[in-house]
Design brief:
Layout: E1 5-13, E2 18-26, E3 29-38, H1 43-53, H2 74-86, H3 93-136
Length: 139
């Protein structure tokens, strides 16, 4: 079995920064990563970046193959349909991959934020419990 691997790095100016678009195809799976360079990178800087940081790039992120269920609420369904219609029909694979990666990162950070809040609330509750216990003992 032979797995084909192909990677490209395209550096362009987006109007404000110099940006690199790294595209990676491995075994039929397409992934993309966006790197912001800031000032115009020289060929040596690009070569150093590829040599040192290419392996650390997250091309595929977390694969979420589960399809989202349609909402039960008819107003929400209508909003989702309107949102889907607003999105441009023509989009490059790289744009789609980057959008999916941003969405996955957003969900992951929301999950982490929720967990952090729950941990902080638990810590506050434990502190109150300890304070009540000390007060009850006459301290």
């Amino acid at each position: 079995m032979q797995i084909s691997v192909s990677s490209t790095l395209t550096v362009y100016h987006d109007g404000q920064f110099w940006v690199g678009l790294a595209e990676h195809v491995e075994g039929g799976r397409y992934g993309a990563a966006r790197i912001v360079f800031g000032a115009e990178p020289s060929n040596e800087e690009i070569l150093r970046f590829v040599a040192s940081k290419w392996a650390k790039l997250s091309f595929f992120g977390h694969d979420s193959t589960e399809a989202s269920k349609p909402a039960k609420n008819p107003k929400r369904r209508a909003r989702e349909a309107a949102k889907a219609l607003k999105q441009p029909a023509m989009s490059t694979k790289a744009q789609q991959a980057l959008a999916a990666q941003r969405e996955a990162m957003k969900q992951e950070s929301a999950r982490a934020r929720s967990q952090r809040r729950a941990d902080e609330a638990e810590a506050r509750f434990e502190q109150r419990k300890l304070k009540r216990k000390q007060k009850h003992r006459g301290h």
